[in-house]
Design brief:
Order of helices and strands: HHHEHHEEH
Strand order of the largest sheet: 1-3-2
Radius of gyration: 17 Å
Helix content: 55-70%
CATH superfamily: Winged helix-like DNA-binding domain superfamily/Winged helix DNA-binding domain
Number of helices: 6
Largest sheet: 3 strands, antiparallel
CATH class: Mainly Alpha
CATH topology: Arc Repressor Mutant, subunit A
CATH architecture: Orthogonal Bundle
Number of strands: 3
Length: 114
């Protein structure tokens, strides 16, 4: 069976559309990128590395990424409490695709600036 025909009907059955829904928010990709570059991080470390993000948006975006299985949240029962964030295996598997998308974006930026 031709894969294109399999996904040609309902838009929700398109795997690309589905994937983009998981990472499509304004802050999801920057969060994933920072975690991929830095490994396990605490909330305030993430906040410092992502320019312009508010506390509310960082919290909401981390919850969405966790719910979508891309980010792992580990809370340690210490005083003061400590929470760490890292990429899950699914999040790590996404990174080569984002690297390729970044390369494509660079090419397009160069082409458009001529």
């Amino acid at each position: 069976m031709n894969d294109k025909k399999q996904f040609s009907g309902e838009i929700n059955s398109c795997p690309v559309t589905y994937a983009l829904k998981l990472i499509g928010g304004k802050w999801q990709i920057p969060i994933l990128w920072v975690l991929s570059q830095n490994g396990t991080m605490r909330y305030n470390e993430l906040k410092r590395k992502i320019s312009g993000i508010t506390n509310m948006m960082l919290t909401q975006s981390l919850k969405e990424l966790e719910a979508n299985g891309l980010v792992k949240r580990v809370q340690y029962m210490e005083i003061p409490p400590r929470v760490e964030y890292s990429l899950t295996d699914a999040g790590k598997k996404l990174m080569p695709a984002l690297d390729e998308l970044a390369r494509w974006g660079i090419e397009q930026m160069k082409r458009c600036s001529k």
